Amino acid sequence: MNVRKVFRRTHDPIWQLQLGVVAIMVLQFFTDSSFLPYNKFIIIGFEAVLLIALGVVTSDGYHRVSRPRRLLALSLIAIVAAINIFSLVFLLRDLLLVHQVNLGGPALLLNALNIYVTNIFIFALLYWEMDGGGPDRRVMKLRQNDFVFPQMLHRHVSGDGWLPGFIDYLYLSTTNVTNFASADTVPISHRAKIAMMIQALVSVITVILVAARAIGILQ
Predict the structure, then answer these.
(1) Are 39 and 189 in contact (CB under 8 A)?
(2) pLDDT beyond 90 at 190
(3) In this structure, how many other beta carbons lie within 10 angstroms of the beta carbon of residue 76?
(4) What are phi and psi of 146, to 5 degrees?
């Protein structure tokens, strides 16, 4: 992989997204194995391969539409999302269906925190790839955007030609799970609204059901 390409000065450098995926893999490493659908080392290794491949096929500055890049990005998002859903289901199973919880309160809190934070990064990746058909299509303006950022409305602040990057979608995702609504970004497409609703519901389940039960065990 060309190092200059990865760290190229652009509105949306690929290393920011890669760092977000690495954070997900670290969280999965610290997740208890009983809450993962498969061996954690195989899961993390497979995600690492997809992540490296994504960096290799990413076009320089997203100035051309790359179908392999989109396929790898969607595959990575789908795998990470599926694993996090399994983790949440397994955690709720132990909390609601098993009379004797095998893990203590601190362990439950740690796994709930992992699911909560992973939820932030997963949907940041999803918003990044969904909005306008992906970063390459946003650059070429081939499709209508799914989100309206304040910089798009106040050109005197951002200047003409401003485009959102991964950090903007990470901020959107973070505010959606903490406020249960975006702070300043407006979803304008149905799929964007549905995605934000799903993310908020996952956050509610994790925070209210899981964390509340874990705190009760601590007492």
Answers:
(1) no
(2) yes
(3) 23
(4) -95, -15
pLDDT band (50, 70, 90) for residue 194: very high
The three-point CA angle 16-110-177 to 5° equals: 55
Give the rounded percent of residues in the chain with a pLDDT score beyond 90. Answer: 12
Q: What residue segments make up the domains of the chain, in order of their start?
A: 3-218
- For 21, the token pair is 């995926």
What is the per-residue pLDDT across 152-181, written as a single tens digit (0 to 9) for each? Answer: 887 777 677 788 888 999 999 999 988 877
Q: Between 23 and 161, where is the model more confident?
A: 23
| Band of pLDDT at residue 183, cut at 50, 70 and 90 | confident
Rounded CA-CA distance 201/180 in Å is 9
Given this model, what pLDDT does residue 94 score?
Answer: 73
Q: Which residue has the tokens 């918003």?
A: 127
Task: Tell the residue number behind the tokens 């992989």, with chain if given.
Answer: 1
The phi, psi pair for 32, rounded to 5°, reads -60, 140
